[in-house]
Design a protein that fits this description.
Blueprint (H helix, E strand, L loop, with lengths): L1 E8 L2 E8 L9 E4 L2 E4 L11 H19 L4 H12 L3 E2 L3 E3 L2 E7 L7 E5 L7 E4 L10 E8 L5 E8 L5 E7 L5 E9 L5 E3 L2 E6 L17 E6 L8 E4 L8 E6 L5 E7 L6 E6 L8 E4 L6 E7 L2 E6 L7 E6 L9 E4 L5 E8 L2 E8 L2 E7 L5 E4 L7 E6 L6 E7 L6 E6 L4 E7 L9 E9 L5 E9 L10 E4 L14 H8 L3 E5 L9 H5 L7 H16 L8 E6 L1 H12 L6 E5 L18 H4 L5 H10 L14 E6 L8 H13 L6 E6 L10 H18 L7
Parallel strand pairs: 36-37, 36-38, 38-39, 39-40, 40-41
Antiparallel strand pairs: 1-2, 3-4, 5-7, 6-7, 7-8, 8-9, 10-11, 11-12, 12-13, 14-15, 15-16, 16-17, 18-19, 19-20, 20-21, 22-23, 23-24, 24-25, 26-27, 27-28, 28-29, 30-31, 31-32, 32-33, 34-35, 35-37
Helix pairs in contact: 2-3, 2-10
Length: 698
């Protein structure tokens, strides 16, 4: 199939034809409740087949040929590299007798973990993930220091996979021990005496480690110096293969907390008294309709953050001897703002709230008595809070859309913060402004949106816009800094981020309003955001690029199929595109709480109504589309993007390009080396600017 691509000659645009690879179709079908649904590209689900590998190679070849002819692609890459090349430091944490923090000198593929004895001492490298692989594709994940400070356990993942391995080092000497734990996924690392608790699956059978359904999650205890085969099984539940189990010990190591979940929201909570070898797990809260998270304990009294009878969250005190809900005592009641997190510092609580998607915080006694508002630097997002109950000194970062994270040291007694580290970036943020607006969605719901752009832009409908959204899984989109975004902004682009239903910006009701049989609300909110930007003369349909990743990739896929006339570019990244089969791969079954399942007749019909893969239609002109995914994505398997790309190329009725970029040795996004991030970002911006007919000044 041929397409016509626009290419510039000087400042004019010329035409050049490209050929898509021919994708084989088969006669595979499924029958759901009497309805037959074809799936002609099912063979692309086999990520181990030679045929799929050849398809990936041929698609990447066409995509790279197209991108290579965009005249400013290399300049965008060079500008991104220059912008990213500034030192970045993470929030320090006090573990045992040492402070740990991450630092990136500028263009290192992975940030390096440093250690220091005090904040005034010279830091030294403790663990450099860049030395674990030649191409930067091995990343450091979860880590934890033993309570006595002697040992450092850490997990590493390869090529972006969710699978990880756990290793151990001596903290003081840095000597690597022989301990190695395999087949770990969705796990913490929590110390008790001379060992730690973790969660894992059994080793996958055959070659399906990146696609096979993850079943029978188990909790183990590993004692230092022993082989993994000797690890003690702590908890399993053979009756429910599709549940996950996460454990951690309290700071005093006297109790083991177990959280049981069967989706991405809601959990049951159990507590085990480790001081008694014969003790059993005590059920604190059962069912998966609400969230329960232990914040702190004083003896057998536990402080738990929950949305039980409080959609915007509260904190309750639970006596382990009387755990029934009728005995729970509300310590921090529900407020109009959403309670996001609670930290302990110096014998006090620091409660972080979100009001219209921006951060605020208050300090309270354990009784719930409010002491004072925490003084934050301005309007933005508080993140990475690090504190200990016996330490009055805490740390946090604060960021906005146009300013990178600044690291602060905070004293909970004096309620004063001071700058510990401020990033020095070669970018003049005084030339830009950020605002928050509220627009009306299809059903009359008011939805907030952030808009960022150069000061004094003309509202004449001609500005290129990058509209970003997510809208799912109770995830809140708050102000954050992105180096990659700067290239678009400094070339006259407008960045807009809509706080769609399905997220957590206004608590559990807002989340539920964008799930299952109400998922269309999310797409309506996003479409209404684009219409608002047009109505307010920021832009016009051909000048809007829509973007989102994972659940946000689904968002882009659904909106471009429902309103192909409304957008100038579509950028679905690692998206959930096949809404009938997502639950059959890896951890996809856990998403049915948000999406529903094709195994339920009512939900099947609803899913079929918006599933991006199943709503591509012939004789329709879809916007220029660049699909991005990765060959080691075992969260949202790349088959979603593969099948969507093949179908889109088949039905596209106009000359707009429909391309897929498949990264190798990379996964869902976490741990991706900086070099790959720069290359991918340069390609995405090149495609976007080119198809929005921008001529960047680089």
């Amino acid at each position: 199939m041929a397409l016509t691509g626009l290419f510039m000659a000087g400042n004019a645009f010329s035409q050049e034809k490209l050929e898509y690879p021919k994708t084989q179709k088969t006669d595979v079908t499924d029958t759901y409740f009497g309805k037959t649904v074809p799936d002609p590209y099912r063979w692309l689900e086999d990520d181990n087949s030679e045929q799929t590998a050849k398809w990936v190679q041929s698609q990447n070849k066409v995509t790279q040929e197209y991108l290579s002819k965009i005249p400013y692609r290399q300049q965008i890459k060079e500008r991104l590299t220059k912008l990213w090349n500034y030192p970045r430091i993470g929030v320090p944490s006090l573990e045992g007798n040492h402070y740990f923090f991450f630092k990136n000198d500028g263009t290192q593929n992975q940030s390096v973990l440093y250690i220091q004895n005090s904040l005034d001492d010279e830091p030294r490298v403790f663990l450099d993930p860049n030395k674990l692989s030649t191409d930067g594709t091995v990343a450091l994940g979860e880590y934890n220091v033993s309570k006595d400070g002697k040992y450092f356990a850490y997990a590493v993942s390869k090529a972006g996979s969710d699978w990880s391995e756990i290793y151990v080092k001596e903290t003081e000497s840095g000597v690597q021990l022989n301990d190695k734990i395999e087949w770990v996924k969705f796990s913490g690392i929590s110390w008790k005496d001379d060992g730690f608790y973790y969660s894992r699956y059994d080793e996958p059978v055959g070659g399906g480690k990146l696609t096979s359904k993850n079943e029978y999650h188990k909790v183990y205890y590993h004692k230092l110096g022993e082989p993994q085969s000797n690890d003690k099984l702590i908890y399993k539940n053979d009756n429910y293969p599709l549940r996950n189990y996460y454990v951690f010990t309290t700071e005093d190591e006297k109790f083991l907390i177990l959280s049981e979940s069967e989706s991405t929201s809601g959990n049951s909570l159990y507590i085990k008294d480790l001081s008694s070898p014969s003790s059993e797990f005590v059920l604190i809260a059962q069912g998966f309709d609400n969230e329960y998270g232990v914040i702190h304990n004083v003896g057998k009294n536990f402080f738990i953050m929950t949305n039980y009878n409080a959609p915007r969250n509260c904190v309750v005190e639970v006596d382990l001897a009387q755990p029934d809900k009728k005995n729970w005592k509300v310590i921090i009641p529900e407020k109009e703002e959403v309670l996001q997190s609670v930290y302990v510092s110096g014998g006090k609580f620091i409660a972080q709230y979100m009001k219209d998607a921006t951060s605020k915080a208050i300090v309270l006694e354990h009784t719930g008595k409010v002491l004072y508002d925490m003084q934050l630097p301005g309007i933005g997002t508080l993140a990475g809070f690090s504190s200990k109950d016996k330490e009055t000194q805490a740390f946090f970062s604060f960021t906005s859309f146009t300013s990178p994270s600044t690291i602060y040291k905070y004293d909970v007694n004096s309620n004063k913060s001071e700058v510990l580290y401020e990033s020095q970036l070669n970018f003049d943020n005084t030339q830009y402004e950020s605002k928050q607006v509220f627009y009306t969605s299809k059903d009359g719901t008011k939805v907030p949106m952030f808009i960022v752009h150069k000061k004094n832009i003309k509202l004449d409908g001609s500005n290129p816009v990058y509209l970003y959204g997510y809208g799912g899984f109770n995830v809140s989109m708050t102000p954050s800094f992105s180096v990659s975004r700067l290239v678009f902004l400094e070339n006259g682009g407008v960045f807009a981020m809509a706080n769609l239903r399905g997220g957590g910006e206004y608590g559990e009701k807002w989340h539920k309003a964008g799930t299952k049989l109400q998922k269309q609300n999310v797409f309506d909110d996003f479409i209404a955001a684009a219409e608002y930007l047009i109505d307010q003369k920021y832009t016009s349909p051909k000048k809007i690029a829509i973007a989102g990743g994972s659940n946000g990739g689904l968002l882009v896929g659904a909106c471009m199929t429902q309103r192909p006339d409304l957008f100038g570019v579509a950028l679905p990244a690692v998206g959930v595109m096949d809404m009938l089969r997502f639950h059959k791969f890896t951890i996809g079954w856990a998403w049915t709480t948000d999406y529903g399942s094709s195994e339920n007749e009512e939900e099947f019909n609803y899913l079929l109504g918006y599933s991006p893969l199943h709503n591509l239609r012939k004789e329709t002109c879809y916007p220029p589309t660049l699909i991005t995914t990765a060959d080691h994505d075992d969260r949202v398997v790349p088959a979603h993007s593969f099948k969507f790309a093949a179908t889109l190329q088949e039905v596209q009725s106009c000359d707009n390009p429909t391309l897929i970029r498949i990264e190798t040795n990379a996964g869902h996004g976490a741990g991706k080396p900086l070099s790959k991030m720069i290359e991918e970002t340069a390609d995405v911006w090149s495609f976007t600017m080119y198809n929005l007919e921008m001529i960047p000044a680089l």
